[in-house]
Amino acid sequence: MFIKSLIMKTILFILILLITGCGHTPVPRYSFEQNDKIGYLVDIPSGSVTHKHFGVTIFGNFVKQYPYEWNLDKYVEKQIISTIKNKYKFNVVNLENANFTKNDLKDLITSSGDSWIINKEHENVYNKLKAMNLKAVIFITNGKQRYGEDRYIYDYGIFTYTGGDGMFAYANFYTIPKPFEEKIYIINEPSDLDILARNAYDKSVLSKKTMSNSFNMIQVTPEVENEIDFVTPKDFNNLTEAEMMPFKKKLYEYFDYKIEAIGKTLQKDDRNSTKVIYNLFPVVL
User: Fold this and answer.
1) How far apart are the first and last CA of the chain?
2) Which terminus of the chain is more solvent-facing, meaning fewer CB atoms within 10 Å of its CB: N or C?
3) How far apart are CA 232 and CA 46, in angstroms?
4) Which domain of life is it from (predicted)?
5) pLDDT at 150
6) Residues 162, 55: contact at Cβ < 8 Å?
């Protein structure tokens, strides 16, 4: 019995380590009120979308860019105004109009062990934001998304791969990557709320089979195909703008959910205790 109990305790300990992400810088308690000033900056490249394909062998791999305009930056800003301002009643401030740039906000506040620190190279930026009486800053820009081991996607669009069970059973599978970096900096209590927003997002899509959690790509399953009116492209190597449109629709939906999750996170600190460890893995608490 002792050995069995010891084994069970060991397994439980390992599971706890996996679920909690082996440690995460704690986010301090916070409280925002309606009409508090929330800054935002959206810097997402526009003018093209990318089709990245991972074949059976390296000879089947390719990357192709298309000059199709999805206007993601404008759509995300529109959702911030309609959700963060109009629904959650915060006073939003477009930081681009105040001459802030992506380089100003990238890594503005970072974690170090159990503490949050202000990047020394951006102290002047932080002081300017604080002088504007901003309670928080929403920063959304391009980033990367991992697939496989040590492989990353840096451009939005679609990611496809060839798979199957046998030599004559191969097919192309479609996914929609989310290679974005999203930060929610608290200004008065320097920290980043994005891990809480990720959990809020994951909870909101838990029952929706046609969406993925915050860490994974959106799989274009038969359910998703029906939802977005997906039609198999006539020429896999030359996708038309109309054939790409369903993927754009789904990426827009992702931002609908994500901005809503950010709004909920800003509205209320819904943790049940002052010491809560939030997961870094795609497990919904």
Assistant:
1) 31
2) N
3) 25
4) Bacteria
5) 80
6) yes
pLDDT at 7 over 70: no
Instruction: Find tokens 């503005």 and name the residue.
Output: 108
77 belongs to a structural domain = yes
Is residue 11 in some structural domain?
A: no
Instruction: Measure the CA–CA gap between 223 and 160, rounded to whole angstroms.
Output: 17
d(CA 53, CA 174): 9
For residues 161 and 176, give the distance between their C-alpha atoms in angstroms, rounded to a whole number: 12
Enter the tokens of residue 142. Answer: 């391009």
| Full residue range of the structural domain in which residue 254 is found | 33-267
What's the chain's average pLDDT?
A: 86
Residue 217 lies in a domain: yes
Distances (CA, A) of 239 to 51, 57, 130, 229, 245: 9, 22, 47, 15, 10
Kindly tell me if the per-residue pLDDT of 21 is higher than 60: no
Instruction: Please tell me the predicted confidence (pLDDT) of residue 281.
Output: 30
* Strands lying side by side in the sheet with 171-176: 62-66, 49-54, 157-163, 171-176, 218-219
**What are the phi and psi torsion angles at 95 (to 5°)?**
-75, -20
Number of domains within the chain: 1
Instruction: Cite the DSSP H helix spans in 101-240.
Output: 102-105, 123-131, 194-205, 222-228
Question: How many C-beta atoms surround the C-beta of residue 169 within 10 A?
Answer: 8
How is residue 281 written in tokens?
């893995």
